[in-house]
Amino acid sequence: MPGFRSALFYQDPKAALAWLEKAFGLELVMLLEDGDGTLVHSQMSFGDSYVMIGQEWSEDHKSPRSVGGKNTQTVNIQIDTDLDAHFERAKAAGAVIDAEPETQFYGDRTYRCRDPEGHIWTISQTVSQVSREEAEAATGLKITGWV
């Protein structure tokens, strides 16, 4: 298991599972349901990482749809294939596009979108290796640490 993973909460988690597979290619690897067929817990994988998808279950565990579209995190997916094709797939699935594909100063091509309940997703593909010095020159920022 990865040492760091996230959980997202949805009003309709089963619809989210289907959408995340269609839009981003995530794969359902675990599904727990109660006797009524209500989703209790699920996990979707992407490469060697996974995200937990669940239903709202307390005042502190809500979908952005339930709290006026507010988010406290952005989920990032790093891909190694054609970002523009991935973008078209997500757009065709109904993703709300916040930022079109664009190459960033740090060497990744990225786009940002929202799923049907408003979670923000950033998709990235490294397209060039950029040194810290190049990034500082491009941005005017002082950068400490650079992976």
Write the layout of secondary structure elements.
Blueprint (H helix, E strand, L loop, with lengths): L5 E5 L2 H12 L2 E7 L5 E8 L2 E7 L18 E6 L3 H10 L3 E8 L4 E7 L5 E7 L5 H8 L8
Parallel strand pairs: 1-4, 5-8
Antiparallel strand pairs: 2-3, 3-4, 6-7, 7-8
Which key terms come to mind for this protein?
single chain; 147 residues; alpha/beta; four-stranded mixed β-sheet; 3 helices; elongated
Descriptive notes:
The protein is of the alpha/beta class and 147 residues long. Helices cover 20% and strands 37% of the residues. The chain contains 3 helices and 8 strands, in the order βαββββαβββα. The chain is elongated. The two termini are 23 Å apart.
What's the N-to-C terminus distance?
Answer: 23 Å
Q: What order do the strands of the largest sheet run in, or round the barrel if closed? A: 1-4-3-2
Instruction: Provide the low-confidence segments as ranges.
Output: none
How many β strands by DSSP? 8
Largest sheet: 4 strands, mixed
Strand content: 35-45%
The chain-level mean pLDDT equals 94
| H/E element order | EHEEEEHEEEH
Shape: elongated
- Give the number of helices: 3
Whole-angstrom Rg: 17 Å
Structural class: alpha/beta
How helical, in percent, are the residues?
A: 10-25%
